[in-house]
Structures are given as structure tokens and as C-alpha cells.
Amino acid sequence: MDIALMVMQMGGGAQTSIPSLIAHASLFSKAVLLLLLGLSVYSWAVIWDRFRLYARVQKQDQSFLTAFRNAPEKADLRLTLQQHPASVLAKSALAGLKSIESHSTGVVGPAAAYDLAQRAMDRAANDEVAGLEKNTGFLATTGSVAPFIGLMGTVWGVMASFVNIGAQGSATLVVVAPGIAEALIATVAGLAAAIPSVMAYNHCLGQVRDFSNHAASFAGEFLDRRLGGDLR
């Protein structure tokens, strides 16, 4: 009975607004809401950071690709590479250029030099793509976990309502409403944290996949222009 009275007291009395319900919610419910708020705030910070980064990378990739295609076939690209520090394609091209220069002594044949340069470009592109994926896993975690955290708060609110009914011997709205409202707030908070995170994670996944595909396609184009004549 003492436990039931404690839960009833933690459930609080009837309130008239959502801020008032939150202010008078149980400590457990407040902890759940605070945790969801923290997950939501950090998720939005990750979303803002990744979206800005992807926009910058995409812009520099396009600019570098245009400059590369307009340059002569054997032109020195070092200045162009330095002008695009955020470009995945530029980092990949730099790795390929270094590999070509290091194997230009005739120690290896043209086909081997092509293969070595391609692998160097693939490694550089993979490293850059891995950096672009940083923190996106948190979005997936939030999207998966937040609804269950909200559900935990929901179950607590419903439990508090039933304890109030049993303790007061009445099922009126005055008895039931606070706990149910508290439960629904936790549910909404969980969904509010999860839905944007899932949508943003899927978008980030698509963007990262596009960067990876473009880098793989560019490697062939770059090496064909730089070494294609040597393979004939």
C-alpha cells in the first residue's frame, strides 16, 4: 500500500496545461522527458552539422570536376586540388596523382601503375566517406531507442493513473486525466525525437552512398585521362 501511495503522489494531481503537467510530473517522467530532450537536441546538432558538410562537399566536388574536365589532359592539378579542400573527388585525385608520380620510374609496367593508382584512390575515397558518416549512427540509435524511452514514460503514467483509481476508489477524469496526459506527453516526446532522426539518417545514408559512387566513377575517369595513353 505504501508503494501504491508513493506512485499516486508521483503521478500528481489534475493540471490544466501541458507546461503545468510537465512541471508537476513525477521525477521518473521528468527524467524520461529530459533524456528525450537531450537526444533530440544532440540529434538536431548532428543533422545541422552533417547537412552543412554535405552541401559544402557536394559544391566543391562539382566545382573540382568541372575544373578537371576543362583542364588539359596532362595539366598540373595541384593548385586546383588545393582550392577544393572539402572535395572527396579532389582528395581521391591527389592520392592517384601521388601514386602515379611514385611509380613513374619504370619499375612497374603501365597496367600495374594503373592498378596501384586506382587502389590508392579507392582508399582515399573510402577514408573521406568514412569521415562523412561520422555521428550519423547516433541518428539511427535515437530513431530506434527514443520511441521505447517514450513508451517507458507512457507505461509509468498509465500505471500512476490505475494506482490513483485504486487508491481513491473512483475512475473520474480528475483521477485518471493527469496520469494519462503525462503518459501521452512522453509518447509524443519519444516520437518527436525519433521521427526527424530516422528521416535525417536515411537522407545522410543516401548522400554518403552518392559520394562513394561518384568517387568510384571518377577514379576511372581520372586514370583514363592520366594513364590511358600509356596502356595502349
What would you note in describing this structure?
It is a single chain. 82% of the residues lie in helices and 0% in strands. The chain has one domain. It starts with a helix and ends in a 5-residue tail after the last helix. The protein is built from eight helices and no strands. The protein is rod-shaped and about 95 Å long. The chain has 232 residues and is mainly alpha-helical.
Give a brief rundown of this model.
This protein has 232 residues and is mainly alpha-helical. It is built from 8 helices and no strands.
What would the keywords be for this entry?
8 helices, 232 residues, mainly alpha, disordered N terminus
**Uncertain regions spanning at least 5 consecutive residues:** 1-14
Question: Helices and strands, in N-to-C order?
Answer: HHHHHHHH
Total number of helices: 8
What's the N-to-C terminus distance? 89 Å
Q: Name the structural class.
A: mainly alpha
What does the radius of gyration come to? 29 Å
Number of strands: 0
Mean pLDDT: 83
Helix content: over 70%
β-strand percent reads: under 5%
**Can you tell me the number of structural domains?**
1
Name the shape in a single word.
rod-shaped
Sketch the major β-sheet.
Answer: none
